[in-house]
């Protein structure tokens, strides 16, 4: 059954080009992760958009705490009502976290909704489908769960706001609420936005904070 669902969703995976935007200035955005035409973070969902689903995650680490909010929208098929070019089923991700060192930190959705006994329990990057490759450094930044870096200020406060069509909060082959759930991970270092060999750390290195996505 799962195999048939994945094969049925293969075309959806191929068509799910990400539309991502960071809250940080364009020159600090990860150019590879944000390879689609970026939308400014200040552009809210268009008039007439309906909320299809919501989810949250409580992010925790050693001295680190924060939240991630996820909202999936159904948007009107009308350019006049949708000048920012939001896509049907697009998911907005809003993250705020404290206790991080200043700079950029990799942030991704991971394949398993667990943070215990340690953050390794979250598995690799969320990348469903028969051709998926969850290795955190290989096939990066083309995983379905890849997101922009979190930008952390001098006070240790990190924020990010992104839009993506690579995942869904509702049922389907890209749903984060599959049999084993999904987690969000923040990494110790910057996501370099390139593909590397396994264990090279190009995706951000050590995992320093984790949260499990929960339906709202």
Strands, helices and their partners?
Elements: H1 2-8, H2 10-15, E1 50-61, E2 64-74, E3 91-98, E4 103-105, E5 107-110, E6 150-152, E7 157-164, E8 183-187, E9 207-212, E10 214-215
Antiparallel strand pairs: 1-2, 1-9, 1-10, 2-3, 3-7, 4-6, 5-8, 6-7, 8-9
Question: What does this entry show, briefly?
Answer:
This protein has 216 residues and is mainly beta. Helices cover 6% and strands 29% of the residues.
Which sequence of SSEs, written as H and E, runs from N to C? HHEEEEEEEEEE
**Number of beta strands:** 10
Profile the largest sheet: 10 strands, antiparallel
CATH superfamily: Superoxide dismutase, copper/zinc binding domain
Number of helices: 2
Q: Would you give the CATH topology?
A: Immunoglobulin-like
**If you average the pLDDT, what whole number results?**
77
What structural class is derived from the secondary structure elements? mainly beta
- At CATH level 2, the architecture is Sandwich
Task: Estimate percent helicity.
Answer: under 10%
Instruction: Count the domains.
Output: 1
CATH class categorisation: Mainly Beta
Shape: globular
Terminal CA distance reads: 27 Å
General description of the model:
It is a single chain. The chain has 216 residues and is mainly beta. It has a single domain, classed as Immunoglobulin-like (Sandwich). The chain contains two helices and ten strands. It has helices at residues 2-8, 10-15; strands at residues 50-61, 64-74, 91-98, 103-105, 107-110, 150-152, 157-164, 183-187, 207-212, 214-215. Strands 1, 2, 3, 4, 5, 6, 7, 8, 9 and 10 form a ten-stranded antiparallel beta sheet that branches.
């Amino acid at each position: 059954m799962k195999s048939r669902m994945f094969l049925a969703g293969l075309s959806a995976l191929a068509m799910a080009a990400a539309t991502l935007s960071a809250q940080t200035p364009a020159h600090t955005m990860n150019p590879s992760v944000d390879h689609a035409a970026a939308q400014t973070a200040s552009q809210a969902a268009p008039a007439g958009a309906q909320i299809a689903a919501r989810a949250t995650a409580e992010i925790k680490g050693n001295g680190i705490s924060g939240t991630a909010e996820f909202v999936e929208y159904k948007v009107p098929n009308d350019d006049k009502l949708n000048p920012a070019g939001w896509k049907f089923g697009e998911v907005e991700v809003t993250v705020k976290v404290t206790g991080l060192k200043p700079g950029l930190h990799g942030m991704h959705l991971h394949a398993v909704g667990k943070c215990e006994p340690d953050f390794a329990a979250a598995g690799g990057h969320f990348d469903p489908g028969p051709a998926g490759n969850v290795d955190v450094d290989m096939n990066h930044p083309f995983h379905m769960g890849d997101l922009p870096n979190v930008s952390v200020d001098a006070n240790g406060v990190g924020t990010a706001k992104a839009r993506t069509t690579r995942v869904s909060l509702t049922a389907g082959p890209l749903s984060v609420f599959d049999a084993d759930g999904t987690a969000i991970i923040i990494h110790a270092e910057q996501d370099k936005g390139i593909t590397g060999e396994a264990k090279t750390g190009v995706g951000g290195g050590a995992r320093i904070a984790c949260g499990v996505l929960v339906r709202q």
